[in-house]
Amino acid sequence: MKYFAETLKYMFKNLLYILPMGILPGLVYVGAFDYAHFKLVVTKFFTGKLLELEYLDLFRFFSLLNVSTWYGTLLSVFGFFVICIMVATLLALIEKHMRIGKRTLNGVFSKLNDNILTTIFVAFVGIAIYEIWTALTALALFSILKLFIRSVVAAYIFFIIVLALAVYLLVSILAKLVLWIPCQLITGFNVFESLTYSAHLSETRKRRLYLPLFLPVLIGTSILCLCVIGGTPALAPVVFFVYLFYVLFFCTLMEVAYFTDAEMEREDLKPVYKRRNL
């Protein structure tokens, strides 16, 4: 719970400082979110009609890219670069605050020259891994539905078991990658050196990262599902706030986890008179 608690503590203490960087990503997801297939899968699941789902329904439910329509695909691709720019800026802000204890914009935007390419590359790798996971998970779940087509109860049981195992696998992979960007930006290592260092840092503590990586997504998805089941007329505002929280939380988590695992002293936790004058 340490990483989770420390991340939330930093977020709410510095909310006005980091909030502007999460607004655009939240708006992007409002436009790119596949409302139709999210509602379809949730509705079928909770009304006992799980066996009616097709492979593409499941794939589109899990995918971060809205490939249901041409404009959804276009917005997803455009949104990817918008989100990368905002994430790079947010990471620069948080890293500077934790490293020298100052919440100022001086030097932050100039650092984007270093941050942006790294962020785009790591984000692209992360998206590729996630979409491969989505394709394989959707295939496994669809196979379960076809295998137990004559037994709804068995289909539900094995569907949930396979999904839980798939999510555990995904979280295990992400736990090794979550420190990749901070490692490269703070140490100056190249792409592969920073990935190796990230995996090394998280190896002994990776299980501590499981909860903060999984719990926010579980809560956010549960809120969205409850809105669908409850017949919320406008899901877009909920999507905005959920994904706004995701961006702020996971960017903060990266820095909190890196400073903790690398045993770096955080200047933002010190009283003003004890901070370094840089």
Radius of gyration computed on alpha carbons:
20 Å
Largest sheet: none
Q: Indicate the low-confidence ranges by residue numbers.
A: none
Strand content: under 5%
Q: Oligomeric form of this entry?
A: single chain
Structure annotation, total helices: 12
| Secondary-structure content class | mainly alpha
Total DSSP E strands? 0
Termini gap:
32 Å
Q: Average pLDDT value?
A: 85
Taken from the alpha-carbon principal axes, the silhouette is globular
Proportion of helical residues:
over 70%
Order of H and E elements = HHHHHHHHHHHH
Overview of this structure, please?
This protein is an all-alpha fold and 278 residues long. It is built from twelve helices and no strands. α1 packs across α12, α7 (112-147) packs antiparallel against α8 (152-177) and α7 (112-147) runs antiparallel to α9. The chain is globular and about 65 Å long. The model has no long low-confidence stretch (mean pLDDT 85).
Short description:
The protein is mainly alpha-helical and 278 residues long. The protein contains 12 helices and no strands. The mean pLDDT is 85.
Key attributes of the depicted protein:
mainly alpha; globular; 0% strand; 278 residues
Helix-strand blueprint:
Blueprint (H helix, E strand, L loop, with lengths): L1 H12 L1 H4 L1 H13 L2 H12 L8 H8 L7 H31 L11 H36 L4 H26 L2 H8 L3 H13 L2 H24 L6 H26 L17
Helix pairs in contact: 1-12, 3-6, 3-12, 4-5, 5-7, 6-7, 6-12, 7-8, 7-9, 8-11, 9-10, 11-12
